[in-house]
Specification:
heterodimer; A: 415 residues; alpha+beta; ten-stranded mixed β-sheet; B: 237 residues; alpha/beta; Rossmann fold; six-stranded mixed β-sheet; four-stranded antiparallel β-sheet; 8 helices; 37% helix
Chain lengths: 415, 237
């Protein structure tokens, strides 16, 4: 066995020296593999980076939170909207009822949103998202505050004119000056800034927290129609630490049905949404992009593989005499086979490696330009090298077999 | 003593299109250890075919071939490769060195196939290169060597694995007469160290270096005689 390994190693050394001797040809023939690996791995890398971003955005919603809404989070072509559009919207009262009766919830909160004009002095911002929230919103949503504080329970109950603002809102309204304790105008009235949210950065799920402001729902109820579809009223329930989501959902289904007095035979007229539903949807989407990337890449790799097979045939033809000499000196068929096979594999690995280097530099460049981090993952490096290895084996095996089966008498005479 | 090489009614037929060519009809030869045999014959006599069979590059259509007691006439590719590696040292008319390898690496090549480690290979190859007086050309590539030096490297390569027979195919065919003379003197030296040499040639004066001359014609042995001239010369010495 060690002899076999030794011969294998020697045949690789042979292959390597042959490649060095034909530099230009080597480079040209591995270009196909380089382009193939570049296209496959760059698609994988883009998708992975997008996916990572989406997952981190989704995770800010909380994985153990159930959202009671009118519309379900579903994806796909056959969304039966006609079944949902006459449903009632979740209300503040229902939220209070759930808070009172649920045993599996650790915190329950209500949220509605709208777009409004806000201003501070002469600076006016249009189309700013205003979230109207109830008690416990900070716990369910895990919001972090960089300056100031969250609303107190009393302030929320009383519906005071107070506001939390996103970091980008602060920058725009106050030009980086400290905003705590100052007033901004929302709904045409003055609201005191009690806190600033920590910077979140670009979000893959619509708007970033940075561009939003938060007010108590008991205050906003005077200016926002919570019975309107446009405000997207949502009841958010966080499960207790040991309670699985499904159990919480079962309980919530019972509570909601009894509150809404639904007969046993009728369908639910509310949706219980979870972040896993969102992720499932994204998984499907990314799966499709990945598949199409792999499909396109497969063909370019195939072309590259043909190139390698071709150049290997030329190489065998050119070295027929040397193969004959090697055989006359006692090289076994397997030695010749390994020699040419490892030459093909080495070519492909080199081509793949160059492709990966190109992906790496492209990802650095794009990360710079797009303000969005694109990372060439270790997993994708391995995938790229593995594909190169397989292509090398597949495209090298026929020329190598051909070389190994050459008749020594004929081979040694050819020139 | 058993002969080192024994051919028994060897024949070799080729198919060219629909026609069958009988390159060797029936050849029987025995060669003992430390014999110096010249194999002669005009082109088309089956000389090359016989050499290929003796060198285990080809297998006979019928007949038996024992090399060092082993029946090699029905062996498969890999076993034949091993026999070539261990039992036979080839010297070719066109030297057949690997152009990109140094003299040392060329000589060490059979040792790679035999599975020796690197140090052993270098030691052994240097040793045989010294035997052919090329110690100062160890790291030269074939294109940096003269014809005679290239043939010496090839001879060193043939010797490196201590083969049972040295099979030289027109070893002086590409050399001028002075260099030919040197190469034949080298074969003489190798022979005196106890090696068995089979020399394939069509030149009468080259064949005269051997002790025994086997002449082939039309795929048969025409004559198999001791070289009286040579033996007489030796007995005088």
């Amino acid at each position: 066995m060690s002899l076999y390994l030794k011969l294998f190693f020697e045949s690789i050394v042979f292959a390597f020296s042959a490649l060095i001797a034909n530099k230009l040809r080597t480079i040209l023939s591995l270009l196909g593999i380089t382009i193939g690996i570049f296209s496959i791995i760059s698609v994988f890398t883009m998708v992975d980076s997008l996916e990572r971003k989406v997952r981190s955005s989704v995770s800010t919603l909380g994985s153990n939170v159930v959202f009671i809404q009118k519309w379900p989070w579903e994806f796909g072509g056959d969304y039966p909207w006609w079944k949902y559009w006459q449903r009632p919207l979740p209300s503040l009262d229902e939220m209070h009822e759930i808070e009172k009766r649920s045993e599996m919830a650790s915190s329950v909160s209500f949220m509605a949103s709208t777009k409004k004009v806000i201003s501070s002095g002469s600076i006016v911002l249009e189309n700013v998202s205003v979230l109207a929230v109830s008690n416990n919103y900070d716990k369910v949503k895990k919001i972090e505050i960089s300056k100031g504080r969250y609303f107190t329970e009393l302030e929320l109950k009383a519906g005071k004119n107070i506001v939390l603002i996103g970091s980008a809102v602060e920058e725009n309204l106050f030009l980086n000056a400290n905003s705590l304790g100052l007033d901004i105008k929302v709904f045409g009235r003055k609201y005191k800034v009690v806190g600033v949210l920590k910077r979140e950065g670009q979000s893959m799920l619509g708007e970033s927290m940075d561009d939003q402001i938060i007010v108590p729902v008991n205050n906003a109820i005077n200016f926002i129609d919570l019975k309107s579809e446009n405000t997207n009223p949502t009841v958010m329930i966080e499960a207790k630490a040991t309670i699985p989501n499904q159990q919480l959902k079962d309980e919530l289904t019972g509570l909601m049905r009894s509150m809404r007095k639904l007969k046993p035979a009728t369908e639910d007229n509310f949706s219980l949404n979870e972040t896993s539903l969102l992720l499932n949807g994204f998984d499907k989407l990314f799966g499709v992009i990945n598949l199409s990337g792999a499909f396109i890449g497969f063909f370019s790799i195939l072309v590259g593989g043909f190139g390698i097979a071709n150049i290997m045939f030329v190489s065998v033809k050119e070295r027929t005499n040397i193969i004959g000499i090697q055989k006359s000196l006692g090289a076994k068929n397997s030695f010749i086979l390994f020699q040419f096979l490892s030459e093909a594999v080495f070519l492909c690995l080199l081509g793949g490696f160059i492709g990966l280097v190109l992906v790496y530099f492209t990802s650095l460049l794009l990360s710079e330009i797009l303000d969005f981090e694109i990372i060439l993952a270790f997993k994708n490096i391995i995938t790229g090298l593995f594909i190169s290895l397989v292509i090398g084996l597949v495209s090298g095996i026929i020329p190598a077999y051909f070389a190994s089966r050459l008749n020594p008498v004929d081979a040694i005479r050819s020139n | 003593m058993d002969p080192i090489l024994k051919l028994n009614a060897i024949s070799r037929h080729y198919k060219v299109g629909a026609e069958e060519i009988q390159a060797l009809k029936s050849v029987s030869i025995e060669i003992n250890k430390n014999e110096y045999v010249a194999l002669m014959g005009p082109s088309g006599s089956g000389k090359s075919t016989l050499m290929n069979i003796i060198g285990c590059l080809d297998t006979p259509t019928s007949g038996e071939y024992f090399l060092n007691g082993k029946d090699v006439s029905k062996m498969e590719d890999d076993d034949l490769a091993e026999i070539r590696n261990k039992e036979i040292g080839f010297v070719f008319q066109t030297f057949n060195l690997l152009p990109r390898l140094s003299a040392l690496d060329n000589v060490a090549l059979p040792l790679i196939y035999a599975g020796f480690n690197k140090q052993t290979r270098i030691d052994r190859a240097s040793e045989v290169l010294a035997q052919v007086s090329l110690s100062d050309r160890v790291h030269h590539k074939p294109n940096e060597l003269s014809g005679g030096q290239r043939q010496r490297v090839a001879i060193a390569r043939a010797l490196v694995n201590n083969p049972s027979i040295i099979l030289a195919d027109e070893p002086t065919g590409n050399l001028d007469s002075k260099t030919s003379h040197e190469i034949m003197a080298l074969f003489e030296e190798i022979y005196k160290k106890g090696n068995t040499i089979i020399l394939v040639t069509h030149e009468e004066d080259i064949a005269q270096h051997a002790h025994r001359i086997v002449r082939l014609k039309d795929g048969l042995v025409e004559s198999d005689t001791l070289n009286g001239q040579r033996i007489k010369k030796e007995s005088i010495v």
